[in-house]
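ok so i was messing around last nite and threw this chain in just to see what happens. nothing serious, just curious
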Amino acid sequence: MLEDLLKAGHCFKLICGAGKEDIEEVRKLVYIYALAGCRFFDLSANLDVIDSARDALQKADVEDAYLCVSVGLKGDPHSNKAVIDYNRCVNCGSCESVCPERAIHYAKVKRNKCIGCGRCAKVCPRGAISYISEEKQLNEVMPDIIKIGVDCIEFHVVGQNEEEVFTKWKYLKENFDGMLSICVCRAKLSDEAFINRINKMIDGRKPYTTVIQADGFPMSGGEDSYKSTLQAVAAAEIVSNAKLPVYLIMSGGTNSKTSELAKMCEIPNNGVAVGSYARKIVRRYLDRDDFWINQNVIDDAVEAARRLVECCE
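result:
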């Protein structure tokens, strides 16, 4: 059961990405990390994505794995997609060079790959890149997802619209009886407001039926350094100090240093969710045209992934 994985205290969760809807890439990612020992996978709330993950688990002959789908608020960066204004764009290639997901090619955005990380807009010299939200309406996507069965639903609550937060949270609680996860960061909240929001959301829920994913700096984990993961550990410390009846997972800037830093700081937790860095270290294998037919490519990818998974134990 998912609870047993979390109770063990060294759960590794692969974040494929709430905005990642590249079916084949998700299939490869789940396959690689399942073979590497990962048993918890975070996916877009998309039936085709869920099917591709299940197909990958079947290929890997892994049965004891758990799937989580992510949903969020309007304006959540995880549901944003880059849009290029061609009246401003000069096709300089700056955006393409910094995109960690290979979502931009010749100034064209591949929407199924874009995760809304914001890197492209930061480097555009002409201010030609903006974002649109592709927020998924819960009453449209959740019934079918709940029907086919998933193990966890994660709710990203980045933002200050309390009415929207609790309206959607109420819907999830009333319509899904499995594990619920709250992905929350301090970007727009004080530490006090951060904990107050969590307390209000878990009020009335049975103990340890909720995961708190403490998101340090969302989608920032491209580098493997203590500095990159510092905010994730700091956010986890705030939750840990509150002594809440929840499972605690660190995310947002996470990498191979996260568990080590948490241990150094004596911060108890139940695991680490890794997205950007986990995808980065296997990127060159994912991009290979011979991925599925070259066992050496698969073996090398799995070994790279295994080293990361083992760092989080």
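not much to say yet. DSSP finds 13 helices and twelve strands in the chain.
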